[in-house]
Design brief:
399 residues; mainly alpha; two-stranded antiparallel ribbon; 19 helices; 3% strand
């Protein structure tokens, strides 16, 4: 006889523990370089970026993050592992979820999003139910270590909701410390990290690079985007990282709300996965077909087109999708944050002689593939102003 389906999900199930262990390994492998840019393998970075763009996949981060962290290398090393775990999870619980029509990078992103939700569910609702050894996985194994302070998975997940709420309410996180300071009120490890970086940070900006590590999982999952627009940077000093919520991130926040009432609910998890499948189909469609002409089309019509694409793949669950679904406002946020992220990368490239001279021309061509209007010889700073006015602010008016 074939393998039988498991219709109940328990916090100590092998699939659950294996997935959360994979999530921890993925996060703990991130690093932020403190070397000069001349010590970084630009060819490797650009090669990985081109590999992703072949699947119409883009990381919404600044160019400096792509170069000064191992984000692309870490993703390349874990993509297949994340995708395989997701397939096994769907098969183990016989979930009615179709992922085969999506490219590998999008399947891996769905797995990462789902694992973050799964970890949050287990930590907030079932941690005390786990055997001692498995509980230690969450509470004692370091996930991020910085300046002698270690954060475990409980610490990292505890930062998640304050981060998303901060981005939702203000539109952006100007300093990395805002949500972390809030989480530090109920985590000794996070409080120690804040005190350490505040003390050492007075001597220079390097200690604040830890906030890159803390937010990289959200960037990887498409929940937040990082941008470096001149209008913002001209008003700031020091090591301030800017993160803004994506449409997918807004939807993700709605998904998190149901964890308390739908904890380890197989039907709920099935809907969440189908919801993520639909969103990723919509995002891929935008990157592939709409992004190159985004300044010459009606943005609201594009958003409606993305919703139509989303609805093709979402299997209806009347009891849940009345409360959270990917909507026009979410689509508009994804349109604006994606456009701004790419323009921001291009701006950085044009304004750093060292980077411009070292990055291969075929990598630069990736920008003109997705943003051909760059070739119109309009200053990129003016394009960014137009994108903020026409896309980003408009997306929040409709929120």
């Amino acid at each position: 006889m074939g393998n039988e389906c498991r219709f109940n999900i328990f916090p100590g199930d092998p699939s659950v523990i294996q997935g959360i262990s994979l999530l921890m390994d993925f996060i703990s492998g991130f690093n932020v370089s403190v070397k000069s840019r001349r010590g970084i393998d630009i060819d490797k970075v650009s090669g990985l970026a081109r590999k992703l763009s072949d699947e119409h996949y883009i990381f919404l981060v600044s160019l400096s993050t792509l170069i000064n962290t191992n984000l692309l290398e870490q993703w390349d090393g874990y993509r297949d592992k994340l995708e395989n775990w997701l397939r096994d999870f769907i098969k183990t619980y016989c979930l009615d979820v179709g992922i085969d029509d999506l490219p590998s990078n999008y399947r891996a992103r769905i797995a990462l999003d789902f694992l973050i939700l799964l970890a949050k569910d287990v930590i907030e609702n079932h941690l005390k139910e786990l055997p001692s050894e498995e509980r230690k996985l969450f509470t004692e194994k370091p996930v991020i270590t910085w300046m002698g302070v270690s954060l475990n998975l409980v610490d990292v997940i505890s930062i998640l909701y304050p981060t998303i709420l901060s981005a939702l309410t203000s539109g952006a996180i100007s300093y990395g410390t805002e949500p972390v300071r809030l989480a530090g009120q109920y985590s000794g490890n996070i409080k120690s990290l804040l005190e350490k970086t505040a003390t050492e940070g007075r001597k220079g900006g390097q200690p604040y690079r830890v906030y890159k590590l803390i937010y990289l999982p959200l960037i990887s999952a498409g929940v937040a985007s990082e941008y470096m627009t001149p209008e913002i940077l001209e008003l700031s000093e020091g090591f301030k990282y800017r993160f803004t919520i994506t449409g997918m991130g807004h939807n993700f926040a709605n998904s998190m709300v149901f964890i308390l009432s739908q904890s380890l609910n197989r039907v709920y998890y099935e809907y969440v996965l189908n919801n993520l499948v639909g969103i990723n189909h919509a995002f891929q469609t935008f990157i592939q077909y709409y992004l190159p002409n985004i300044f010459s089309v009606d943005v609201y019509s594009v958003a409606r087109g993305l919703i139509d694409e989303y609805l093709k793949y979402v299997k209806t669950n009347v009891g849940i999708n009345r409360y959270f679904t990917y909507n026009i406002s979410d689509a508009l946020k994804d349109i604006s944050t994606t456009t701004l992220a790419l323009l921001s990368q291009y701006y950085e490239l044009q304004n750093h002689d060292e980077l411009r001279d070292r990055i291969p021309s075929d990598y630069i061509n990736e920008f003109t593939k997705y943003l051909p209007f760059i070739t119109y010889r309009v200053p990129v700073k003016d394009m960014i102003k137009e994108a903020i006015k026409r896309l980003w602010l408009y997306s929040y008016v409709n929120y």
